[in-house]
Batch of 2 targets.
Target 1
Amino acid sequence: MSNSDKSNPVCKIVVDAMGGDFAPRNAILGAIDAVKVDNSIRLLLVGRTDEIKGILSEINADTAYYKIIDAPDVIDMNENPVVALKSKPNSSIAVSAKLIAGGNADAFISAGNTGAVVASSTLLIGRIKGVERPTIGTFIPNQKGICTLFDVGAFVDSKPQHLLSYAVMANIYVKEIYGINSPTIGLLSVGEESEKGNKLTKDTTELLKKSNLNFVGNVEGRDILKGTTNIVICDGFIGNILLKFGESVPGLMKHLLTQHAKKSLFEKIKIGLFKNTLKEALRPLDYQGYGGVPLLGVKGVTIIGHGSSTPLAIKNMVLRAKEMHDKELVNKIAFSLNQSQEKITESKDE
Amino acid sequence: MSNSDKSNPVCKIVVDAMGGDFAPRNAILGAIDAVKVDNSIRLLLVGRTDEIKGILSEINADTAYYKIIDAPDVIDMNENPVVALKSKPNSSIAVSAKLIAGGNADAFISAGNTGAVVASSTLLIGRIKGVERPTIGTFIPNQKGICTLFDVGAFVDSKPQHLLSYAVMANIYVKEIYGINSPTIGLLSVGEESEKGNKLTKDTTELLKKSNLNFVGNVEGRDILKGTTNIVICDGFIGNILLKFGESVPGLMKHLLTQHAKKSLFEKIKIGLFKNTLKEALRPLDYQGYGGVPLLGVKGVTIIGHGSSTPLAIKNMVLRAKEMHDKELVNKIAFSLNQSQEKITESKDE
């Protein structure tokens, strides 16, 4: 999985230089910025060599810290992931995943086609034993800090054992990355009582109760922003819808403020004066700070970024990837899944 | 269903005086305010006579416009709806529903236990022919005005025919109440393409395509606030979670502004000065203007309010109930469901 050894703590991070709406510029600028923070990082910049070189020469990047891996093809943001992966084996996403799969790098970040990153990680890097479905989690800032929501990867029609494995993986992620020893886990439903919910939540509750996780029961839609639990687990259908709904809230706010500013010059001036304060106050909501979101359950560190990722977002993705590698997240998840499986089997035998 | 005749346009509205966190005060103040706007309304105030009289005497309400119907029991907000309905036949909610069922009133509003209002309407007033499940819709303000989201009533594990009937009923509601002739209808999913979604959305798409509704296909979480369609249809599990998530957004905003104000006196003053502007700008988000949400699919007009309903919200609920009665929503929904059933049957025969 990893070719770094303890005596040489260099971490090789594969950067899909062609991923995102502002590639390769933002991907490269952000990745190079990350190296300035942590010089144990070595970048493998994957994509069209000429384009990558063009950006690198502009910023006079230190050649000691990166290598360019040529990948002439690009998977577009709207291409069908599986079809594109097959028809474009020389795409930056496919080449990146193969670098991890071949043990030539330690972590992979991309702001490209999410489905293709998931598919390449799942098919080329492979799943951890016991994982039927990998999961994407996201960070939702709330009144107590951050809630991590799994799954937002649009894996739909989940089965209870999928949600259980999301919870096991999320538990390790939050414990290791946020240093929360026994994170609280809620199951997203329509009422706090365990009899409130759909068939999936009721069946999943049974499994979660048997696990050794800090499962507190059902949580409701309002609990995400209230910060009732550290982790919220749901089917990817609802997670994806919630994520996109949440991302559209600032747009509505902006629209309502713009409309209000039209009412009078006085209101317009007030809103103009307040703009920066509002922006500062709402900074915790800015996704750039979180960078990207982890894909858990594959045999490698994969972080997926927003298509519109800025250099700051990419930089934070690279740094988070390094942290996940250093903390051996993949091994810890594999161990924890194995333990969880034993625990469930035991309770069946009883 | 209704005992008003065309020559005498008086509309009798049953008000669950004991419903809501601030009952009976807010329920009565709001209902009396509605009569001041529309004096063709006659109120049947259902609840504990003494308590109701106490509030009425405070405000010197005109006795011509209301009647008190005694109901000594109250169903609490957190009681199990079906159990409570059985054990408390003299509760304000049960008595209210029976008034509609018996043809003694034209519409019913309550800010009480939502489940109990749904159960009493469904069991005592009864469902319209062809309705397996009634549906609760909500109004979500967005960049183009309002999106109506059905179902938010937490009816979970829906079947495709349930979602189709929600769409048929929502179509009539939006057409009649908002005067939109052929409202656009989107099915909430994880991608715009019809192949993106779960089993339920894929199967429902087939049904919606065969209907005579203005179905535009899948919409995503972000489309609700963008205002892509007039109506968004989803299973009650996700609708309920989205609704509660959305309701918790202002709380997070307030929290972030309060935190920011602590940074410096200057920021605190700026936020203080801006508070009212922000409040005014975000007024379209205030649920009070919408009052309550309709329960569609039962043989009577039922409007359900938030537990924390203010007198303004209750007033708007009463006025909306009157409008639904005047526009014969129940008959129109019954007619439309019948037509839709014929259309689906025809397309099966072809």
Note: Residues 34 and 315 of chain B are 5 Å apart (CA to CA).
Target 2
Amino acid sequence: MTESGEPRRGRGRPRRDAVEDGPGARERILLAARSEFGERGYDRASVRGIAKRAKVDPSLVHHYFASKEGVFEAAMEVNIAPAMDIPQLFLADAQTDIGERLTRFVFGIWEHALTREPLLAMVRSAVNNETAAAIFRRMITRRVLKRVTPALSGPDAELRVELAVAQLVGTAMLRYLIKLEPVASADVDELIAQLAPVVQYHLTGTPPTPRTQNA
Amino acid sequence: MTESGEPRRGRGRPRRDAVEDGPGARERILLAARSEFGERGYDRASVRGIAKRAKVDPSLVHHYFASKEGVFEAAMEVNIAPAMDIPQLFLADAQTDIGERLTRFVFGIWEHALTREPLLAMVRSAVNNETAAAIFRRMITRRVLKRVTPALSGPDAELRVELAVAQLVGTAMLRYLIKLEPVASADVDELIAQLAPVVQYHLTGTPPTPRTQNA
């Protein structure tokens, strides 16, 4: 468990970069975890790599989070919470313009690297690893489905929320991960204008107004 | 480069499982590549692993496909072609029911493990690796955009095809990779019924009929 590339040190000589527990250690570990999982993906990330980035002993990571799974879930909760905490405001008048508001809110998160990166790390990890997928499922279920579904009506409300999520996540995948043109470089307001009516339709059943076909 | 678990053999005694070049070798390599990339993802797959599965020498893989990138692209082309070769028939009357036809066609591919697995391998690889993403981009551009876009009208037809693709790929991701409920277990005809109008709207601008909200 020693880090290779470290200069040799004598017994009792404090490690230059190994900072002990103390104020901010937990937060530093979570930030380090965001980078580690973001750059390496769940499978290749390690508690040791996170500890090294946070300049703490790996045992401290285990102390706070028990396991790689634990630190992944905590890091994703901390970093993804803003993206999933849909303002209650949106849900009060779901029937009118929830599609527009929700789509705009989601792109507000995606369009900033600081909030986009942890989400991309989550998506990358979840498509490749069953543990990460289970954590992703729990987060969507707790944070999105349990919040949005009650504002809607109909027996298949949960399924329809997921199809709206699928439209948004699929677009994000093509735009930010696959970088397929023209969606990768499309103006974000243009994307919101195209997607909001579809999200509204999924959630409430209200159809978009017809688009002129030969514009 | 020897395979462990092999019985020892004397000099000059042919390896039981090392089949030389010959009829079917190229096809066997492509089948092996499908399994290797499917199970290990692009990053962790290797030419050696593919050769071992195909029971050929790694040099034969290099001979046919030059590189890991080459064998990946060829394997994906072979295995994904049926999923991307949208029947020309669909496109003749794009304005009427292309959404329904295309959605049904895509789920026909996804719902069978034999055709689903290579697509999932492609998606998994493309979200994690830039080389695989570039190959995915080329395939979507050549096989989907160049075929579907000319059947549509409007200056943003390519973008709209991609947003339809995003809806379908996003749904597939949640259903088959993330396995989020209820979309993971939803009846496929129910999914097609929900998604076809959205695909139709993206492609042609024709809005769905309103859905009863308190069904």
Note: The two ends of chain A are 63 Å apart (CA to CA).
